[in-house]
Specification:
seven-stranded mixed β-sheet, mainly beta, elongated, single chain, four-stranded antiparallel β-sheet
């Protein structure tokens, strides 16, 4: 089965930390651009972090820069999002995304089904 599966979402108090994991199966992430998105209730899905290729230098939105860290592990074919100093504004469903050129004419986009992060006291 070709898929991305996120895990690690939980209920956490403000100021707390979580680490999200995204494991790929059925394909390798080595040649894909990777991103983490999130979607809060009633709002559009937004990207919060990405790397243009697996293992490359990361980028972050201003909302999470300095608090979130994206990382990759080729051996485990997985990507992670370390989230520190969480704020209620971070409450959302978090999605792993991978985009890659799979042939001369095709680009394949993979989405995980999401994992819920709730930041509340």
């Amino acid at each position: 089965q070709v898929q991305l599966v996120e895990s690690g979402g939980d209920l956490v108090q403000p100021g707390g930390s979580l680490r999200l994991s995204c494991a790929a199966s059925g394909f390798t992430l080595d040649n894909y651009a990777i991103a983490w998105f999130r979607q809060a209730p009633g709002k559009a899905r937004e990207a919060v972090s990405c790397m243009s290729s697996f293992g490359s230098s990361p980028y972050y939105t201003d909302a999470v820069k300095g608090r979130f860290t994206i990382s990759s592990d080729s051996a485990k074919n997985a990507v992670y999002l370390q989230m520190n100093r969480l704020d209620p504004e971070d409450t959302a469903v978090y999605y792993c995304n991978a985009v890659g050129r799979t042939s001369e004419l095709a680009i394949t986009v993979y989405w995980g089904e999401g994992t819920q992060v709730t930041v509340s006291s």
